[in-house]
Design brief:
It is built from 3 helices and 10 strands. The chain is of the alpha+beta class and about 130 residues long. It is globular and about 40 Å long.
Amino acid sequence: MSMQDPVADMLTCIRNAQMMGIQKISMPHSNLKNEILKVLLDEGFIGSFEVVEADKKRKLNVALKYYQGRPVIEKIKRVSRPALRVYKGYDEIAKVRGGLGIAIVSTPKGVMSDKTARAQQVGGEVLCTVE
């Protein structure tokens, strides 16, 4: 079975693991997933991640972050999907939960948080929101 949306699969994997209280997860590697995880790490939503090569295939190992036994990521949602792409200008990107959450945006300057996109005045495809 072919995977239609690997980013949605990654977000679902993170969501399910945090509901179960799992500390570390593993998933297939892609450059877009790698960039999304960098943003999540920079914003403090995950503990760490690394790229591991096993059997000539690269995998991403992600250490999830918990605070007082509760997951740091309360809600993670895919916004733009293959069937319906969502593009916004830097001034149109809505603040997530009044600025407490982030939106991850794929821009011509790379994948970044909504705060960084507004600061650099660059818009793009809104990939997901994290609260």
